[in-house]
Design a protein that fits this description.
Strand order of the largest sheet: 3-2-1-4-5-6-7
Number of helices: 8
CATH superfamily: NAD(P)-binding Rossmann-like Domain
Number of strands: 7
Distance between the termini: 41 Å
Radius of gyration: 17 Å
Structural class: alpha/beta
CATH class: Alpha Beta
Helix content: 40-55%
Strand content: 5-15%
Length: 256
Amino acid sequence: MGEILKGKNILIMGVRNKWSIAWGIAQAAEAQGANLIFTYLGDREKESLLKLTAGMGEITAYPCDVSKDEDLDVLFSNIKNQYGILHGLVHAIAYAKSEDLKDTFVNTSRDGFLLAMNISAYSLVAAAKRAQELMTEGGSIVTMTYDGSNRVSPGYNVMGVAKAALEASVRYTAYELGSKNIRVNAISSGPIKTMSARGVSNFSDILNIVEQKAPLKRNVTLEDLGGTAAFLLSDLSSGITSEIIYVDAGYHNMGA
């Protein structure tokens, strides 16, 4: 066990199962000594979370639907009452309707567009607004994005637009919270086998292309992403904010 996060209270939002990027980050943060706080959505996610964390001893987990302001208010009130202070927030939450990923982008429904923006982008702003009040010693906020925000990734559709909004939100939030010594960054992950990725058409082809063309000649792992997030949550990254950190085996720098 390392100690770069020793004594730090870290909120992890977005663990759904053992394939979740948020779970990879949670494992890395725990290995570096963090005190972990989790959120879950519904009984199924709670059951999955409790199974995953069984080896971590007693954990703290709160229900939270990020589309509801009242849920976010209760979440951060509970954290304040139990911990008093928050040092880090991991926002690994995104959602789009499956039909809006399977159809063409121009056929995205109005409801689907707004839902994807609400859950995938605005929820970071809403969480940061509340987290800043508990980050009285400064802090670090980390979210997850993908290069489909900058380049067309067929099948990523409305999620690419939502991730572009998320990245812009990172920059504006980092600017406004910087005076409080709160840093805000995003990790742009290479394609990785999560439950959400299964909704993207031709995802297996994307994995194969990255493995062939990336400088490291492989796809990234949860361990790769977890290690980067632990660094960004720690004081070792004290001078880094408003950045999109690519963890994609170098693929984003390659030509077509």
